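Much of what follows relies on a compact textual record of a protein's fold. Think of the row as the fold of the chain written in a discrete alphabet. An example makes this concrete, so a full record is given next.


***
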Amino acid sequence: MCSTFLDGRVLPYLMLIEDPTFGRNFEVNKPEAQDAEQVRRSLTTKLSVVYCVVAAPSIVGFAMQGRMPQAGLAAFAVFLYSLIPVMLKRGASLRTPAWLFVGVGYVLTTVNFYCDFGEPSFLMGVWGANLLLYTNIVLGRFSGILITVMYLLPIIVFGQMHRIGAEFPLLSGYDPLPPPPLLVQVAPILFFLYIILEYLRLEARSRQRLTETVAEKTVLNCELREAVKELSRKEKDLKEARKRAEEQAELRKRFLSNISHEIRTPLNGIIGMSRFLKESVQQPGQLEDLATLQYSAENLLFLTNNILDFRKMEEGELRQERHPFDLGATLKHSVRLWEWTGQQKRVAVHAEVDPKLPRRMLGDGNRVTQIVNNMVSNALRFTEEGEVKVCARLVALDDERASVEIDVSDTGIGIAPENQKKIFDSFFQVETEGTLGTGGTGLGLAIVRDLLHAMDGQIRLSSEVGKGSVFTISVSFPLAEEKDQELGDTGLGAEKESELRILLIEDNSVNRMVARRLLERRGAVVVEAADGVEATEILEKDQAFHLVLVDLRMPRMDGFEVLRWIRSHTESSVAGLHVVALTANVMEETRRALKEAGANAFLSKPLKEEIFWKTVLAHSGEVA
């Protein structure tokens, strides 16, 4: 039965790849799967080598008995199994040598059983059990069942031939083999026991690891539950923090809105009355006093606007309007406002405008004015002697756009190289021995940068300490077409101003007086109301008004309520009245609320006479 030993492909059974318990654990823990895989590969290599060594005597025995086909087959099988360690060392998958073991083992078992004349033996049963166990473990249950059925077929056929005494072709002249050596008889039993022991050992290891994994997962689940609780607490804290932040943001908006109203309302009276007084006062000393008063009020308004615009830029609410304007005239007017300040410091302030600049361009003239005001204010703050000059020049011109550069230069203290990149940061202020008392909010240049960014423009700085600075603004504007009319081009000319009849609703007596005098100096007829309730009483009796000017913040009935009351009276001519709101609150939400309430336009305080009259003329309707 020496030939039966060729079933030694049974030796690699201990690869144990398809143990279901192991499979589940491997899916859970990949490092454990890799460890078990390495153990099986090692066992397969060792058993392949052992088989080759043990099989050598069988090959010699077959040859000495003249069974050359069996000897050759055994030698070929040894050769194939000697390839197994080489394949595994080169990283081959275990399934490849597994099928090699099964295929060659099945062929050799069948051949050896046939060569034994179908006589069953204990060794053949052990080798067959090894083969089936190996197949089931390595290749899976389905493959194990398939090999079992195939293994039973030759047993049934050859066993039946042995029982009936049938002849076995190709074996005539051969006698049954003598009992194999003791090593060959003991080897399959040892192999079988070894496989079983390795299987049980690996299964025990798997169960131990499974227990450890379950314990670990239990701990992790506890930690996860704690983490979820902590996450829930943090999420709750974040929601509360977000709610507080939103409430604080809302409070900040309300605060800034109130500050805007409370500062702009008295400034409207101060600036308006100072302008009226300048027209009536003739004495030089008094004119200088009024100029100082007006400058102080406008400077306070300038700072207030910067703070509010900075908040708008943070919120992304900074508006860019688009209307025809004269850039040269805008620059000259802006510079003229700072001439008095320059005279007080004995610094010349003047503008030079390229005569080639187009007269009509589309853009936000008010924002251009704000940019120039910030630049000139900043230059004057750091210049003690010499000049501050604003130069505008045409860079390029085509049928659609004009590209312009505006230089704002000064002969001040200059800016050190290490501060030139920081100068446009919010709240940054240059602090040197000579600048500690210059003041400022540190917002002017930051606002200039953001305004230019919104206009697709750029700003450059060239400065030398002790000699001064030059800020160069590059921006382009579309050219205004003939159809783009100015705000005041409404068909109501100066000859119509004296025919206007306007209802003025304002609770502040000073502001009401300023607005009334602005209207009456152009010949308009003004009917006054101190609040919304008084205004509705007037409108119920008289709707013959070209325009209604209404303040937003009033006692008893505010401007929004007046607007809604007017628009709700659709059965009368009241609903068709043109309404312009007067407000010291320039927040974006106020603009949106006015539009939703039905206002035709709004004017921000302090009132500027030119803009005031353009708006009045543009939105005055027909008397019903």
Notes: The longest strand covers residues 386-397. The CA atoms of residues 231 and 438 lie 51 Å apart.
